[in-house]
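User: For a benchmark we're assembling, each entry needs the component sequences followed by a predicted structure for the full assembly. Here are entry 17's components. Please fill in the structure.
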Amino acid sequence: MSKFKRKSKGGSPGISTASLPDIVFMLLFFFMVTTVMRETTLFVDVTTPKATEIRKMEKKSLVSYIYIGSPVKRLQSSYGTKPRIQLNDAFAETADIQEFIATERESHDEKEIPYMTVSIKGDEQVKMGTVIDVKQELRKANALKINYSTRKGTY
Amino acid sequence: MARSNRELQEINAGAMADIAFLLLIFFLVTTTMDVDTGIARKLPPMPEEEQIEDDSQIHARNIYVVLVNSNNQLLVEGVPMDISQLKDGAKAFINNNGLSPELSDNPEKAIISLQNDRGTSYKTYIQVQNELTAAYNELRNTAALSEFGSRYYDLSKSQQRTIRKKYPQKISEAEPKNVSDNE
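Assistant: Structure for entry 17:
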């Protein structure tokens, strides 16, 4: 009796799938870590304008977003088509911005406050009047680091 | 004991892959890989109550006035201009170094004054901002290439500061005027 005897009589042995869960888990963790869940539902339509001289925004946790645009289709019956401002999960007036900045600041460490940025996500069709009002409020709230959100591309 | 031997059998892990796949697909679908990009700007602080703006120190030749009206038309230094020419116009103004008597003394003194109507579209505003940024970026790149031999963004922090000092980005936005009442 030989110690190493041929097991199979022809036919290739099946590939071991024992490490498949490991590979899948690896991918799973990668996606879990990189995923950023969309935390706000948009009530306004925002198509940001295109620009070429853009820079990536750093440290997403330090960025607060202000959305400006016309309400989405299903809300137009009750809110009209006039451009509105959205902060977090609700429509807002320009007067609410200072309070919004204050709450955003409270939720961060004191050391991080100088690095906090406000990203203005404005729709292409919005008139500057609304944007100017927002900017004036930001100046009053002393939130001077801003970023005009744009897409890459030529207009 | 025969019985305990059987209980120690390992759990069938064959279904683990299925569960992991399910989760994987969920995260694949929900992932948004988009990176936020934009044009960074710094707003001027709100002026103090008694502070009187003293711009008499600034010579008129060092200010490049860009006006945008509610029909999204540009008026640059009193002359109508197409947006495609704005970048070259701004570059010529900034990098004049005293050559032409109408344009700036040197890049350090050059200020671009941007004023827009409340009726200007945001799209045009961003285009103007983009062109002005492009003008500065190109000038900085040229300076970086001739001085350090590489592009501005590839330079070290201190080298970037040297270039920035040479070409400071001074874009002043005037308090908005409401020329025509059509918002």
